[in-house]
Amino acid sequence: MSGSLQPLRRGRRSGGEDSRELILGTARRLFAEHGFDGTSLRQVAREAQVDPAMVHHFFKGKDELFALSVELPADPEQVLAGVETLDPGERAEAIIRAVLRLWEGPAQHGLVAFVRGTIGSTAKTALLREMVARTILSRVMAGVPGPAGEVRMRGDLVASQMVGLMLVRYVVRLDPLASATQDEVVRMVAPNVQRYLTGELDNP
Amino acid sequence: MSGSLQPLRRGRRSGGEDSRELILGTARRLFAEHGFDGTSLRQVAREAQVDPAMVHHFFKGKDELFALSVELPADPEQVLAGVETLDPGERAEAIIRAVLRLWEGPAQHGLVAFVRGTIGSTAKTALLREMVARTILSRVMAGVPGPAGEVRMRGDLVASQMVGLMLVRYVVRLDPLASATQDEVVRMVAPNVQRYLTGELDNP
């Protein structure tokens, strides 16, 4: 699967490049300020002072515009392909393997730069929050049983472990965790992720 | 305990301010390049082109110089006071409570700025790695039984969960985890941290 992890395309059009970048920059600001749901393509066009048709000319829709605004160096849909169809009770290992494959594939440098840039900036952190909740957790938590609020909490807990794992292993590079094999990481971390996904949360 | 969480003092001396800042800047660079153990006060003085006595005049020793280089907005010794004396088999809750108290006390804004600045910069990330391993994990993992390599791995795993928790709750602010009470967070997260500290790691 790691062969399919291509960075999202960024179009290069000599003519429309300026308008495209203007739209992207405007979208980035609006998504950061108002979130995904609070931002419409119409608004983006208005704030960028371009015709709405031009937004549709450059971007397939709000999802693509959002993904490009965040400048995520990988496509969550590809990375997490198959995860949402697995039994939630046995999904932790697949989530961890998908993340490890991604970070140990060609996107690694882009991801480190993405994390550094995103966490280093307040506006980008807001984008990241939107992206994690909408694009990643919606897939990771699909079909997990329980009341919606509880499932969202479980998703945040899974995120807390996975974000920490990526940071400590690939960005801060604490050893020996940074040099453990993928299988070792899965054995050590999967039971914890699985507890957040479907385990008993309230009774230690 | 949160009343005792004072930011580390930064001296302001009109006369020696320049020399002090010069020494700090040099130390920051050397610690990032060569780590704590690979950096001596003598080297710092040489590279800063000041007399070694001046380094000792401004800083109590290498530990203080390092702590000030990292610009950590809280003192790990105070934050984790008492944790290392607890039975490792029942230490997770105390670790989590110490971290939550810290981040929900007066140091919060400084900590967010610290995390943003540190993760945003390659050199600062190297400093962070040194600091986490030396100053924090040494305390958190004190007395945890097992071979040294395994205990270090357990420490990195604890760090992965705690770093992720801080980022998701306080920096990225994913809800509902960002608005859960401290008691809720402890109930949800402590069993996972405790497994990393002293639980079975290899058999899920």
UniProtKB/TrEMBL annotation, chains A, B:
Q: Which SUPFAM superfamilies match?
A: Homeodomain-like (SSF46689), Tetracyclin repressor-like, C-terminal domain (SSF48498)
Location of the HTH tetR-type domain: 17-77
Pfam families in UniProt: TetR_C_16, TetR_N
Regions recorded as binding DNA: 40-59
**What PROSITE patterns does this protein's entry cite?**
HTH_TETR_2
- Recorded protein name is TetR family transcriptional regulator
**Alphabetically ordered keywords of this record:** DNA-binding
The record's annotation in Gene3D superfamilies points to:
Homeodomain-like, Tetracycline Repressor, domain 2
List, alphabetically, the PANTHER family matched. HTH-TYPE TRANSCRIPTIONAL REGULATOR RUTR, TRANSCRIPTIONAL REGULATORY PROTEIN
Looking at the record's lineage, which domain of life comes first?
A: Bacteria
Would the keyword Hydrolase turn up in this protein's UniProt record? no
Record-level Gene Ontology MF annotations: DNA-binding transcription factor activity; transcription cis-regulatory region binding
